[in-house]
Amino acid sequence: MGLTSDKVLALAVLSGVLLFAGTVWLWPRLAGRGLRAVAGRVGLLFATQLAVFAAVGLAANQSFGFYASWADLFGRETGQGVVVDHSAGADGPLLVVGERRVTAVGGSRPEVGGRIEEIRVVGRTTRIASPAYVYLPPEYFQTRHSARKFPAAVVLTGYPGTAEALVDKLRYPRTALELAKAGRMRPMILVMLRPTVAPPRDTECVDIPGGPQTESFFAKDLPEAVGAHYRVGGGPRSWGIVGNSTGGYCALKLAVHHPGTYAAGAGLSAYYDAPNDPTTGDLFQGDKERKNRADLRWYLKNLPAPDTSLLVTSSKSGESNYKDTLKFIEQVKGKKPTRISSIILESGGHNFNTWRREIPATLQWLSERLDGGNA
Predict the structure, then answer these.
(1) Inter-residue contact 140 to 100 (CB < 8 Å)
(2) Residue 330: which H helix or E strand, with range?
(3) How far is Cα 214 from Cα 204, in angstroms, rounded to an integer?
(4) CB–CB of 11/17 below 8 Å?
(5) pLDDT, tens digit, for every residue of 231-262?
(6) Which of 57, 169, 236, 261 has its CA 20 to 30 A from that of 14?
(7) Distance of CA 276 to CAs 2, 248, 291, Å?
């Protein structure tokens, strides 16, 4: 059973309940001062605490999507070693390995509920390999739209994050489907993955000297691979990008650095400069220019403003980026042609519940700034 399995969580909760009940029941029998009684009490308390800790940890992981598997949890993730070679005439550096239905009424029929495809993509230039999910709206499968091209948005998790959380916890496909049916957004393709494409390292979407070229993967390879496989518009306003936390920083940076690729970028609870900590390692190898470019405030102050749209979110109470976000908004206001929008909640923490409150308006905002390039 997988780390994120409901059965594993249920088993942990049941174990905690049974051990607690057993402790209460057996405590009178273990009330003596002998070594056996003391050992029994210590053993029961330890086992109960361990079960409760496991249940809480599993529940938190399901809510926040920290780790995708047991190997990921224990630092034995080997996903970065996967490279897929495609023969001449193949469909390109993208392989569909599975599909899922959208959890909505009529979701079993793609022309009604759309479809989620699980893919493996390999960067043509960076050779970075990553799994992802692609949401295709119902219109993609409808006969009258068979020649239509669609706008697309890359959707990123935080660090370490799991792509499954974007589907199951943050419910991006279901939200996009409901908004489109209500006429609040255009049908859009969503490409959902985590920015941790070289696990367990947090590359912060940086082209690391001598290391993973993560920024190039998201700026060039990923849109190229998806565009070659799916009916994505080829115009300058066909792609957007959105993410939360680390993914939010990546989204803003990619829109600022590559406005020719991403016409809009939304950062939910984002920060504005790449951190330097044990999870990132030395991202810039002493290259001051690379380090400065990664600081969005430095970039917008010292380099020409990009022609792109940015959306930032925060909360007056509960988010640590509130003051930085207000400063960023003020800085971008005077940097035409860059455009800035915001969602500021009265309260909300750095968690899935807060982001679920922001996602509908964010998708609507993206939809208003993108098109599929159809005549």
Answers:
(1) no
(2) helix 322-333
(3) 8
(4) no
(5) 999 888 999 999 999 999 999 999 999 999 99
(6) 169
(7) 32, 17, 10
